[in-house]
Amino acid sequence: MSVRTGSSSLLFIPLWIPLLLAAVPTGLLWRADRRAARREHAGHCPHCGYDRTGLATTAKCPECGRG
Ligand SMILES: [Zn+2]
Question: Which residues are within 5 Å of ligand 1 (an ion), measured at CB?
């Protein structure tokens, strides 16, 4: 949308357009980051967060003793 006022023209941009342009990639990056964080936590103890890599899935957590 542009309005001509004499020799100069003013450009009007609704504020929600730059907001949307910034929010969409931010939201997508945030979602990808959350997914990566969840995947990282997959091999960790759900109770204490201890890295269970190399342990049997049925083995108790050596850190907190819970399954
Ligand atoms: Zn644990």
Answer: 45, 47-48, 50, 61, 63-64
